Structures are given as C-alpha cells and as structure tokens.
Amino acid sequence: MSLFFFQPVFAVGLCLFAFMLGACVGSLTNCLCGRSRDNKSFWGRSFCPVCLHKLGPLDLIPVFSFIFLRAKCRYCHSKLSFRYLFSELLFGAVFVSILLRFGISAYTLELWILFSLLIAAAIMDIDTFEVPDTLPVAAAILFVLFAAFSEDRLSILVRSLLNALIFGGSILILSLIFDKVYKKDTIGGADIKLIAVLALFFDWKQTLFLIIIACLVGILFAYFAKIGPQKAFPFIPTLVLAAYITLMVSEPFLNWYAGLFGLGEH
Ligand SMILES: [Zn+2]
C-alpha cells in the first residue's frame, strides 16, 4: 500500500521508523563485516576497537550516538571512524527510499533484506576483495522464499531461474574469454555469482539495464579515481549501486524507451 494513502503525520512516522530500522541494520551489518574481516567471532557485545571497553546501550543508538559523542569513544576519547555514521545513514536512506517507492508490502520487506545483503557484500569487497558465498546464497534463498508465497509461483521461479542461468552463464563465458585474452583474472567469481543472483530479482530487460549501468558506473569510477586498466578495483559496490538504480528507475526508463519505438508498456 502506497504511503500516499496515509495521513501525512503517519507517513512521516513510517519513514522515520524505516530510517531507524535501516540505521540499526546498517550498524549491525558494519559490525559483522568488521568482525568477519578481522576473523573475530560474530557473537558478543560491541566494544571500542581502541580501548576495548564494552559499549552500553547509549553508545549504540544509530546515528545519534555518533553525533552526540562527537565521533569519539565515550571512554578513551579516541576518534571513531566515519564509516559507522556513513553505513547507518546509507542503510537508513535505502530503507526509506524503498518504502517510498514500493509502499507497505511484502516486496518492500524482501528488498530491505536483499539490499542489506548486497551492501554487506559491497563492504566486504571494499575491505578484502573477497565476498563469502553465504551472501549470494542467502539472497537466492530469500528470492525463493518470497516467490514461493506468490500466486503464480511456478512461472516466476522458472522465468527467474532461466534469467539467472542465461545472464550468469553469459558473463561466466565472457570472463573465461577475457581471462584467456588478457592472461589474468578479469571478472571476479563473486561478481559473476552476484549478477546471477540479481538476475533472479529482475527480468531480462532490467538485468541488461543493470549490467550496462554497472559498466558505465565502473568506467566513470575508474576514470575519476584514475585507476589504470592493470589495477583491480572492487566491482561489487558498482553492481549494488547499479541494482539500486535499476530498482528505482528502470521501469519508467524502459517504458519511455519502448514508447520511442511504439512497443508499448514494459
Ligand atoms: Zn575507546
């Protein structure tokens, strides 16, 4: 149900709730990604990375704690990384924008979980150039679970699986050819797996749109960050950004594009 059906005060309240929920998930995701990077246990309370003091509830309120503590640890006053604030704001903004675009629906919940997994994959790719298979596998399970509850589940599952196989397979073949031609690893295995998983959630036109956007963003990023062709850079964040852009604008764009050729609605 679209938020426009609600009283403005209630709609703003829902957005605030989505933002705080997103910020909490962002805080947790950032923490778990850091522990995975440092080979630490996922369990146990959060602590300051410098003085190792356990953090209390007041230190863990997303966004607000960071601002009120002026980006410093309450106990040892060492500077906190802006990455905490950034990931909380990013998740909050993504959750709110998905709620505004798709309203209160099971699809919104599915997308909140999907983008939490995707951003986690992007953080891990930036940190370590490695993304554990658990993330794309979890995203694939998420898709199957939600598809299983839809009315035409069989056709959705078959169509999506075919889309994933075609796009995942094509990129895999391309990467094998590129590897042979350039005599080095070109497209990472994690990138191919993620493209296949994203193809589950989008139809073939949207998946093509996503790949084109990812390539354009990747080229622009490499150009502005002055990254030469010999240097590897994490591609998963680019794919995740392209997936977000596809989710938000591909439908109106593809409809407009089809309209140019009189092909009707996407
Ligand atoms: Zn400290």
Count of beta strands: 0
| Percent range for β-strand residues | under 5%
Q: CA-to-CA gap between the ends?
A: 22 Å
Radius of gyration: 20 Å
- Major β-sheet profile: none
Quaternary organisation: single chain
Query: What is the molecular shape?
Result: globular
Q: Which hetero ligands occur in this complex?
A: zinc ion
Which ranges are low-confidence, i.e. pLDDT below 50, for 5 or more consecutive residues? none
SS content category = mainly alpha
Tell me the number of helical segments per DSSP (H or I, 4 or more residues long).
9
Averaged pLDDT? 90
Provide the helix percentage.
55-70%
Succession of helices and strands: HHHHHHHHH
Description of the structure:
The chain has a domain at 1-104. The mean pLDDT is 90. The chain is mainly α. Helix 1 runs parallel beside helix 4 (106-128) and helix 6 runs antiparallel to helix 7 (189-201). The protein is built from nine helices and no strands. The chain binds zinc ion.
Please write out the topology.
Blueprint: H1 8-37, H2 64-68, H3 82-102, H4 106-128, H5 134-148, H6 153-182, H7 189-201, H8 204-224, H9 236-260
Helix pairs in contact: 1-3, 1-4, 3-4, 4-5, 4-9, 5-7, 6-7, 8-9
The structure holds zinc ion (ZN).
Zinc ion (ZN) binds next to loops.
Observed structural traits:
0% strand; mainly alpha; binds zinc ion; 266 residues
Q: Gist?
A:
By secondary structure, this protein is mainly α. Helix content is 69%, strand content 0%. Zinc ion binds next to loops.
